[in-house]
Design a protein that fits this description.
By secondary structure, the chain is mostly helical. It has a domain at 13-32 and 45-64. 53% of the residues lie in helices and 0% in strands.
Length: 77
């Protein structure tokens, strides 16, 4: 009984990292809405936009490249 090894695509892990970073940046951006930092373009709320974009892209990568369940094919032989 040979055990088949499944390869998990690297894009799944890239998506996970983008998702985690996106959520962290989005939370930080939402927290900064109450008291924006004294920077030149703080009224554009860049952390909210970038956090949302990274969360969306990361979630898409995780969904598209998630490991598939092994099919229950009958044993050969």
């Amino acid at each position: 009984m040979a055990e088949k090894h499944r390869i998990i695509p690297v894009w799944f892990f890239v998506g996970g990292i983008l998702l985690i970073y996106g959520v962290l940046i989005l939370i930080t951006g939402i927290a900064q809405l109450r008291s924006p930092p004294p920077t030149v373009l703080s009224e554009l709320h860049a952390p909210v936009w970038w956090g949302g974009l990274l969360t969306l892209i990361g979630g898409l990568f995780v969904h598209l490249f998630r490991p598939k369940k092994p099919s229950s094919a009958p044993p050969e032989g």
